[in-house]
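Entry 14. Ran structure prediction on the chain below.
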Amino acid sequence: MNRLDQLPREPSSQAVAIAALQRQITELRGQQLDLSAADALMPPLDLEPTRWPQTTQTTYTAIARCYNVRWRQQLRLILATAVSGGGVGTVRVLINGTQWGPTTTAGNQLDYTGPLPTTPPIPIGSQYQLTIEAVRTSGAGTVHAQAQMIRHLA
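Output, structure tokens:
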């Protein structure tokens, strides 16, 4: 008599459950987030405002854009702004097209910390777009802005 004939021909419910768990673990390992650069430092930046992103447009215009990975609840942004040539204007920040934080008068520093927008939600580990927009509201000059720090906070 062959002992293999005594074994069940179908896997037991426990064996099926174990196999399913092993597949789920493998899938989760494949989805593991790489946050190694999530708190990366910015390189030294130009101090001369005339070489910063800028506009002379009289409607809000994107002058700088970057992509970041969300890994915390809040974001802190320090943004230097300036005007030249007698211009007056404002600067604002958008995250995925939604205004984030206050609008600031060009010539003032924006130092803002706040939660990322929730509509639409940005899941942990997902990429989002941060855009700096500026507008000249009067005069004939130029509005300038330069991000000086971008950091996620708990």
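The first strand starts at residue 54 and ends at 55. Will compare against last week's run tomorrow.
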